[in-house]
Amino acid sequence: MNNPLINPGIGTFFWMLLSFGVLVFILGKWGWPMLLKSLTKREKDIEDSLNEAQKAREEMKQLTAHNEEILREAKRERDEIIRTANLRAERIAEDTKARAMAEADALIAKARQDIENEKNRAMVDLRNEIANLSIDIAQRLIESELSDQKKADALIKKELQEAHLN
Predict the structure, then answer these.
(1) What are the pLDDT digits (tens) for 22-53?
(2) Boundaries of domain holding 137
(3) Contact between residue 17 and residue 9 where contact means Cβ atoms under 8 Å apart
(4) Number of domains within the chain
(5) Which residue stretches of the chain have pLDDT < 50?
(6) Residue 54 falls within a domain, yes or no?
(7) Does pTM top 0.85 for this prediction?
């Protein structure tokens, strides 16, 4: 088993050591600084991102508080609008009710006046009818009374005396 990789010779060992040294030197000179610079930049970017995230959280808290204030204000305005609308509706309902009552009272008063006028007209018509009937009856009675000349003269005399006295 004479495998040079498992049991390297001095020459191989030397070249391997020299190759490894050159590799470490090249990596140390150019590789590690770039790698460290990249890691430092990455670390700084992560830190900046965390700071920005923290700022964003703070801004979100402020915005949330502001939004809650706006929401409270909107709710207060909504409640005020609803209260005002309810008061207006009540006032309109009361005005409408008062107007309806006034109109109803006016209609009732007009109806009563119409009834009174009709009643008076009926009374006048009834009086006229009674007067006409009375005149008719009196005319028939007078005709029957005046058919006798003596009775007619006595009635005329009596009526004339009463007429002068009044």
Answers:
(1) 999 998 898 888 888 999 999 999 999 999 99
(2) 50-165
(3) no
(4) 1
(5) 166
(6) yes
(7) no
